């Protein structure tokens, strides 16, 4: 519209200086075409000469032309040369400008010029049909281009969303697989680990690893519990069946009272010892630990008792009494429960006597090493394979796989040893190899020896 007005204004000024007769001659020479320059948005023009009262004296134009309002001298002065829009006879809009004719700058001159045949003002107008057509084409082009752009953006956005959500779909697939029981599945980490999805995948994998470890530990714990219950049931059943069998045999008169009572007493003792061992292990497993009577003591005393026990159980067995790694035995002061630690030493001595041939050399070592009090019970027996050595401290485990009491016992002795030593804040270690014997090493926190008065 600004371009139309810019071209319409000089047209109007030109008409004010051109008489109607000259304009008619120009149109005749131009073949009836309007004396306007059809540039861009102007395809049809109109010119009219008006009297002072607004009557159209003469008009030139293409088509029906515009329907002009009453443009007397006052109306023309009110427009002040500003373009305005009017409706045309054919329904099209026209843009027009009304200017006083040359020599009619004031009202008096206008009245003189407005006499018969006199012109007071001129009107130049151009059709806006081309403008509306251009605007329509631009609107259509914008709609088409906008639709194409929206379609392209929607397609690109869909592809980008699917690509961006692909890692989340893999997370969903992994979660579904884990829910179906495959705990080993992990979320594939993207090539860019620094993104939110990459950090999420890494965190989920850590969580899944912990869940898998927790579930595996739970399964292993349940398996150990089932084995423990089965072993306890077997161990308790054997002496109970013995007691029950000899009781029924005596009642039926199949044996005399003395032998029957002796066997019942023997089986009852085994049953009582097994129950005591189980109760001890249960107490040692408590979170707050067992009630220990801790007093200052010296492991050298227990080592000397162990040497005497070996001599009493197998007099033909060579016994060496040394330090932890050889050399002379030394003091090993600790703060411990002497009764429980004696039970530890007794179990280790009995284990060495039971699982080594008669006359096998043994060594009892005692002393301190690096701030720890050390007691060693070593033998030169057949030793243990690595798999057996890793399980000797398990409850009800027997290296020979036998349940015979003469060879395997109940399988609780070394478990009790480890639990008692752990309750004292120490540890027990085993060094063994096939054909090279076995050495059980007890390490407890050493206590400074009290100074003797001079």
Total helical segments: 11
CATH fold call of the largest domain: Heat Shock Protein 90
From the spread of the alpha carbons, the general shape counts as rod-shaped
Separation of termini? Answer: 122 Å
CATH architectural designation of the largest domain? 2-Layer Sandwich
Our count of domains comes out at 3
**SSE string:** HHEEHEEHEHHHEHEEHEEHHEE
Subunit organisation of the chains: single chain
Low-pLDDT parts are: 32-39, 104-117, 401-408
Output the radius of gyration.
58 Å
Share of helix among residues? 40-55%
Describe this structure in words.
The chain is an alpha+beta fold and 454 residues long. The chain folds into 3 domains: 2-127, Beta-Lactamase, CATH 3.30.450; 196-284, Signal transduction histidine kinase, dimerisation/phosphotransfer (DHp) domain (Helix Hairpins, Orthogonal Bundle); 295-445, Histidine kinase-like ATPase, C-terminal domain (Heat Shock Protein 90), CATH 3.30.565. Helix content is 49%, strand content 16%. The chain has 11 helices and 12 strands. It has helices at residues 2-17, 20-29, 73-79, 107-113, 129-179, 196-251, 257-284, 299-313, 338-355, 386-389, 413-423, and strands at residues 45-50, 56-61, 84-87, 93-100, 121-127, 295-298, 319-322, 333-336, 362-369, 372-379, 427-432, 438-445. The protein has a 5-stranded antiparallel β-sheet. Strands 7-9-10-12-11 form a 5-stranded mixed β-sheet, covered by helices on one side. A two-stranded antiparallel ribbon has the order 6-8.
């Amino acid at each position: 519209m600004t371009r139309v007005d810019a071209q319409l204004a000089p047209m109007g000024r030109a008409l004010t200086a051109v008489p109607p007769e000259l304009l008619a001659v120009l149109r005749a020479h131009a073949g009836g075409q309007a004396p306007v320059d059809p540039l861009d948005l102007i395809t049809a023009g109109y010119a009219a000469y008006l009297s002072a009262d607004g009557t159209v004296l003469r008009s030139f134009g293409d088509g029906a032309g515009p329907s002009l309002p009453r443009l007397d001298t006052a109306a023309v002065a009110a427009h002040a040369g500003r373009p305005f829009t009017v409706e045309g006879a054919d329904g099209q809009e026209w843009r027009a400008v009304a200017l006083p004719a040359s020599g009619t700058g004031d009202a008096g001159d206008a009245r003189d010029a407005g006499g018969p045949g006199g012109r007071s003002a001129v009107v130049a107008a151009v059709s806006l049909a081309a403008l509306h057509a251009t605007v329509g084409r631009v609107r259509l082009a914008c709609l088409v281009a906008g639709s194409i752009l929206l379609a392209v953006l929607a397609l690109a956005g869909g592809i980008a969303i699917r690509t961006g959500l692909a890692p989340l779909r893999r997370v969903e697939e992994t979660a579904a697989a884990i829910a179906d029981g495959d705990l080993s599945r992990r979320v594939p980490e993207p090539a860019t680990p620094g993104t939110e999805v990459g950090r999420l995948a890494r965190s989920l994998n850590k969580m899944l690893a912990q869940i898998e470890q927790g579930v595996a530990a739970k399964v292993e714990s349940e398996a150990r519990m089932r084995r423990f219950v089965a072993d306890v049931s077997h161990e308790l059943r054997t002496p109970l069946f013995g007691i029950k069998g000899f009781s029924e045999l005596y009642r039926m008169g199949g044996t005399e009272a003395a032998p029957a009572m002796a066997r019942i007493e023997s089986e009852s003792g085994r049953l009582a010892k097994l129950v005591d061992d189980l109760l001890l292990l249960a107490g040692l497993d408590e979170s707050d630990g067992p009630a220990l009577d801790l007093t200052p003591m010296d492991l050298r005393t227990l080592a000397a008792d162990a040497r005497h026990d070996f001599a009493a159980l197998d007099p033909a067995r060579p016994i060496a009494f040394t330090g932890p790694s050889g050399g002379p035995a030394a003091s090993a002061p600790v703060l411990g429960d002497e009764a429980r630690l004696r039970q530890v030493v007794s179990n280790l001595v009995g284990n060495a006597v039971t699982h080594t041939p008669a006359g096998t050399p043994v060594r009892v070592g005692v002393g301190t090493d690096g701030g720890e009090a050390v007691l060693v019970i070593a033998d030169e027996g057949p030793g243990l394979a690595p798999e057996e050595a890793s399980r000797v401290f398990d409850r009800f485990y027997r290296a020979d796989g036998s349940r015979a009491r003469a060879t395997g016992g109940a399988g609780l002795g070394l478990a009790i040893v480890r639990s008692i030593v752990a309750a004292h804040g120490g540890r027990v270690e085993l060094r063994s190899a096939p054909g090279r014997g076995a050495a059980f090493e007890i390490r407890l926190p050493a206590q400074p020896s009290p100074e003797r008065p001079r």
